[in-house]
Structure formats: C-alpha cells, structure tokens
Amino acid sequence: NEAKADKENSVYKKWTEGTICTKDFILNGLRRGWFDTEKVHTDKQYLTGAEMADALYKAMAVGLDGDLEFEKKLFYYLLLDNSISEKDVCLLLYEQDILSKRDKDYKKLVNGNLDPYRFIKKKISQSEIAPAQLALDPCSASAAIVEPDSGKLLACVTYPGYDNNRLANKMDSGYYFKLYNDLSLPFYNRATQQLTAPGSALKPVTIAAGLNEGVIQAGTSIFCDGVFDKVTPFLRCWNHSGHGKLPDAAAGLAASCNDYLCEISYRLGSGNSGTFVDKRALSCLQKYAGLFGLNQKSGIEIAESPPHVTDKYSIPSAIGQGTHNYTTVQLARYVNTLATDGKIFSLSLIKGISDKSGKIKEKKPVIKSQAKLNDYIWNTIRNGMKQFARQNTYLKEMKINIAGKTGTAQESKTRPEHSLFIGYTPVKNPKISIAVRIANGYGSSNAVMAAKDILDYSLRSVQ
C-alpha cells in the first residue's frame, strides 16, 4: 500500500536506490505495515513474518510472469551485475532460433574456443545477423545519391528499414509492435530526419568564404603547428604534431587542416580593424552556408527535418562543428552543388505523374537557386577534394577520379563519433554525387568504405 509506506524511511530509500533486495524490502515493509496482507491467499491461517514475505514475493512473481517491461528491467540489472556474460548474450541468438545450433560456431562458442566479440563480428560480416538486431552503436546508416546535371534524386536510403507490405492493407499487428519497440528505430528515416554535425565535410564552405571575401587567396600559405591558439579556448588540429607549411588553399582542404580553416574564420572575424569579433565571423559563415543552400530543406516530398546553420562559436563552426546540423539528403544536395559549380536543385522522389488515361508526365527537377562564385574558387575546392580522395586509402583504389571529403563529429563523450563522406565522380563531367552517413560510426573511414561499395555498384549499373 503506497499510501502507508514511509518514503523517508532508510529501508524504503535503500530499495529505491537498488542497494537492498526485494525480499528484504518486503520483510521490513511487513514489520512497518506497508503491505495489505488480507489479499494474500495461503493454506495456513497464521504465518510468520518470513512466511508472509515469501508468500507476497511469490504472488508478485506470478503477477509479473510474462510482463515484458519487467523482464527488460530484470535483464538490465542482470547485465549490470555481470550475472550474464558476453557468451550468454551470444547464446541467446541460438535460444531464440535466430541462428541454428547446427552451426559449427555454436560448439566453439559454448566451449569457449570462439571469443564472443569475434563471434558477433563474424556473424555480421557473413550477413547471418544484422546490426539492427543488436541495436548497438553503430546500428544505422543512410545514403543519398543525386545525378549532378539533371538534379534527379537517384537513391535515398535509410537503414534499418522494414517491410511495408506487412503494414499495408491487412495490418500485421505483431510485426508493428516489434518494430515499434525496436531500439534501432526502423520507423525513423535517417536520410531525411536525422540531424548531425557534418564535421570536416563543411570545410569547402569555409574555403569558399575565405576566398570570396578576400581574406585568403588560392595561393595563401598557412603554417600548422597542431593547435590554433589565437582564441580561447584553443582548438587542436586532428594532426596534433601539425601539418607544417601548407602552400595553398587546396592543400589546406586536402589535408583537412583545422588550423588552416580556423585561420580563415579568424580573419573573417577580424575585418579591417584587426580585432577578432566572433559574431562577425559567424555571420559570414552563415551567409556562405546559405549560399550553398544549407539553410533550406532539400525539397523532398516526405517528412524532412529542417537544417540548422550554426549560430554559435565561429572558430569550431569553420570546421563543421559549432551547432551545424544537417540531414544526409541535405548534404547530398550540398555536394551536388559543389559538383555542378553552384546549381542548387529542389530534390524530388517523384519521377513522373500519371493521369487517368495512364499517360505519364515526367517531373523535371527544378534549379532552386545558383551559388555564384568565381571559377577559380570552384577549381580550388575541386582540386582540394580531388587531392583528398587521392590520399585516401580506400578511394585511391577506385579506377576513376573522385572528389571527396570526409566528416567526423563527436557529439557525445559516451558514444562514438559520427562517420560521414560526401563526394562526386568522375571529377570532370560528374555522373554521381553522394552522401553517406553512419551515425556513431567510429570515424569517417567506415562511411568511405560504404560509399566506395555504393559507387562501384552504381557505376557498373550505368555503364
């Protein structure tokens, strides 16, 4: 009886804090009259305190049998207490018939001859289980592909997904309930709704701002010693030992040098007075993010989260941090703008519209606006992205030229950083612009590998 329970009592507090077990709580609660014992039915007329506590405990256990929320809490505490090992979790895949016990790895796992982590990695790589089934970081991804000249949205993909056929016409309620409670959030369209910081993928915008505002030239050399300390707090370059002398803007972009980009933002904020003003730099960065269409939705006809151009911290904002937040489809349109020297299309999922006679009228993509910059600025950005791709372990394996840029952004100290890649190929007369993001994906190389596989497949398909 909650009304009778003394919530200030030390026993009650210990129970809510999880420092005493339920049986001890019941036994102490009975002594203090916190429970209605009249509703407990037993064969004996008179019970000792311990017997009554045991009867109450059993009655509660019967009531909770099959309670999904209780079972989740139970296993949560079992995991925290290390009562369930990593091997036990892996064996659940066999107990739940997700994997067959005839599998050769089953005995190896049981006997301890196969490490649980290697087991999970192996099963995912062999497509026997999917990341979404684990709902652990990373378990999701998204990609969007645009045809540069036409502005056609060729693909817009989110993972994990679901079988829409089971939810149309006759609703599969069991399937819906499973999806609704799935921790990997399959109903959430990560390509159009998930907002994350773009990280270094936004550095071309800062290069464009610096060049067009005249605070740097294409041949401006800047020395990187690994830390930008003209402001407080200082900001480190990802290369802590420094890049040394970077001869020009394309080299600064190719090296993805934080010092180079931060220096641009600092100069934008200093103006003619030579005194740095954060708001001045921030306003300029916002202006150029808008010039590339990053202050608007992509135009896609389904639910899309509005983009957020940074409104704080001009120095981190210059390297794609600050408060920048964009969806994958918005970043795909942005990189397509880079590929086409400024064409900003209104993206669409609709290829054509059929009238009642069955005649299809093709829907042609619309150029919403044009980012107007001098040719040398586009060429500088293109050369920087091309040099970056040539230096990348995975992209340089491709037989065609590609211009690209990665992005890594850490938004939580308790979760891995986001993994992002944007690019277009070939560099001359591009046929594909692409953005791939793996949220909490442990660094940009994973997004690059995914993008490479997508591009290899896509280019084979169009040949």
Write the layout of secondary structure elements.
Blueprint: H1 10-17, H2 22-31, H3 49-64, H4 68-80, H5 86-95, H6 104-111, H7 116-125, H8 131-134, E1 141-146, E2 153-159, H9 173-180, H10 203-213, E3 222-224, E4 227-228, E5 235-236, E6 244-246, H11 249-254, H12 258-270, H13 278-291, H14 314-317, H15 328-339, E7 343-346, E8 352-354, E9 360-362, E10 366-370, H16 375-391, E11 403-409, E12 418-425, E13 432-438, H17 444-462
Antiparallel strand pairs: 1-2, 1-13, 3-6, 4-5, 7-10, 8-9, 11-12, 12-13
What characteristics describe this protein?
463 residues; 5-stranded antiparallel beta sheet; 17 helices; elongated; alpha+beta; 3 domains; Beta-lactamase; 13 strands; two-stranded antiparallel sheet
Oligomer: single chain
CATH level-4 homologous superfamily of the largest domain: DD-peptidase/beta-lactamase superfamily
DSSP helical segment count = 17
The counted number of beta strands is 13
> How many structural domains are formed by the residues?
3
Shape-level CATH architecture of the largest domain = 3-Layer(aba) Sandwich
Amino-to-carboxy terminus distance: 73 Å
Average pLDDT for all residues: 90
The third-level CATH topology of the largest domain is: Beta-lactamase
The outline comes out as: elongated
| CATH C-level name of the largest domain | Alpha Beta
Q: Kindly name the structural category.
A: alpha+beta
**What is the beta-strand fraction?**
5-15%
Biggest sheet layout: 5 strands, antiparallel
Q: Note the run of SSEs as H and E.
A: HHHHHHHHEEHHEEEEHHHHHEEEEHEEEH
**DSSP helix fraction:** 25-40%
Low-confidence stretches: none
- Report strand order across the widest sheet: 2-1-13-12-11
Cα-based radius of gyration, to the nearest Å: 29 Å
